[in-house]
Amino acid sequence: MTPRRTRFYLDKQNGKFLGVCAGIADYTGIDVLLVRVAFVLLNFATGFFGGFGLIAYFVVAWLADKKPRELDYEDREDRKFWQKVRARPGNSIRDVRASFRDIDRRLADVETHITSQNRRLADEIEALR
Amino acid sequence: MGPPEFLIAVTAILTLFVGLPWLIFHYVTQWKKNGSLTVEDENLLDELHALARRLEDRMSTIERIVAADSPGFRPSVRDAREEEFELPRSTERPTRTRRREH
Q: Which residues of A touch B90 (CB under 8 A)?
C-alpha cells in the first residue's frame, strides 16, 4: 500500500502508549492533551473494562499502521496544511491557488519596480551624452 | 403473540438491522465521494504545495535583494515564515483572507 497523506496512522514517536491518541491529534489537528482527556472521559462513561474505549483503542492500534518515514512533515506549516487537507480538501486547493496568485502579484510588483528603475537609468545615461 | 405485536417486532428488527446500517453506509459513501482525494490528486497537491512554498521563499529573497538595492521599493508582504510566529495571517494578507471566505 502506498503511503498517503490522508490516511490515519499511529504516531508512535509522540505517543504515550501505542500512539493512537497522538495519531488522532496528528490527523485532525486537535491538541494531543484534549484527545487524551476525551479518551479517558469516554472510558469513564462506558466503564473501563469491557467498555467501549479500551477495546476501540486496541482495535485501532492493531488495524492502523505506523506512520511511514517519508510522510514526516517539514515543519509546522506543512503539518497544518495537511491537517486542513484532511478536513476540507477543496479549501486547501483554493489556498494553494491563492498562494500562487500572491506570488504572481509580488513578482509583478518587483518587475514593475525593476523596469521603471531601468528606464530611469537609461534616461540618465541618455542625458549624459 | 398477536399479529400487531408480531408486526411491531418485525418493523423494529428491520429498522435496526437493515434500515439503520443502510442509512449510515449511504451517508458514509456520500461523504467519501465528496470529501476525499484520489492518490493522483493528493500527489499533485503535495507537489503544488511544495512548489508554492519554494517559490514563496525565492520571492522573499528577491524582494529582500531588490529592497536592499533600492530603498524606494517596499515589498507588500513580509517573509511568510516570520508572519507565522508573530501575527495571524489574516491581518497580514488581505488577498488570502478575501478568498478564504467563500
A: none
Nearest CA in chain B to A2: B39
Chain A residues inside the 8 Å CB shell of B81: 77
In tens digits, chain B (102 residues) has pLDDT values of: 567 888 888 888 888 788 888 888 887 877 766 567 788 888 888 899 999 999 999 999 988 888 887 777 777 665 444 444 444 444 444 444 334 434
Give the residue numbers spanning the domain of A53.
Answer: 1-74
ipTM of this model?
A: 0.72
Smallest CA–CA distance from A87 into chain B, residue: B35
**Which of A14, A26, A7 has the alpha carbon at shortest distance from A64?**
A7
Q: Are A109 and B75 in contact (CB under 8 A)?
A: yes
Query: Do B30 and B45 fall within a single domain?
Result: no
**Is residue B32 located within the same domain as residue B56?**
no
Domain that holds residue B85: 38-102
Inter-chain touch A99–B52, beta carbons under 8 Å:
yes
